[in-house]
Amino acid sequence: MLKGLFGASRQARRDDAELGKGVWRRAHDRYRRGLDRFHQMLEGVEGDQAEGQGENYAALVPIANSLAGLLAQVRAIAVQAQAAAPSEGMEIPTGTGGYLNDVHRELSRAGNALAAAAEAVALVRLGVGNVAGVERKAEIVEDHVIRAAELLDGRP
C-alpha cells in the first residue's frame, strides 16, 4: 500500500512538472477521467455477459482500447502546449497568436465527447443503446484529438 502512495506522489509531481496546474493539466485530466468512466461502464457490460451482453462487450473492447491509446497523444499535446505557453491558472496564456485557444478547445471537446461515449456505453448496458452509437462517439473523440494535434503542429 505504501509503495502505491509513493508511486502516486511521484506521478503527481511528474504531472505538475510536465502539465503544470492550469488549463493543460485540466484538459488532460478531463480526458483521463472520461476514459476511467468509459472503462467503468465497460466493466458493467462485462458483468452483464451472463444476461446476453457478451457480443456487446466483445464489440466495445476494441473501442475502449482505441480511446485508451489516445491518452498518450492527449498527454503529448498537453505537454507540448504547456511548454509553449505555461499555464498555472484558469486562463490560456496570451501572446501565442490565439492558436492555443483552439488547441485547448479541441482537447476539451475530446474530453466531453469521451464522457458522452461513456454514457453511450451505459445505454448499451441498459439495453436501450447500441454499439454503433458508441462507435460514433468514439470517432468524434478521435477527430477532436487529431484536430488538436494538427492545430498544435500549425496545420490547418
Automatic annotation (TrEMBL):
Name of the protein described by the UniProt record: Dehydrogenase
Q: What is the native source organism of this protein?
A: Arthrobacter silviterrae
Highest taxon of the source? Bacteria
- Top-level taxonomy: Bacteria, Bacillati, Actinomycetota, Actinomycetes, Micrococcales
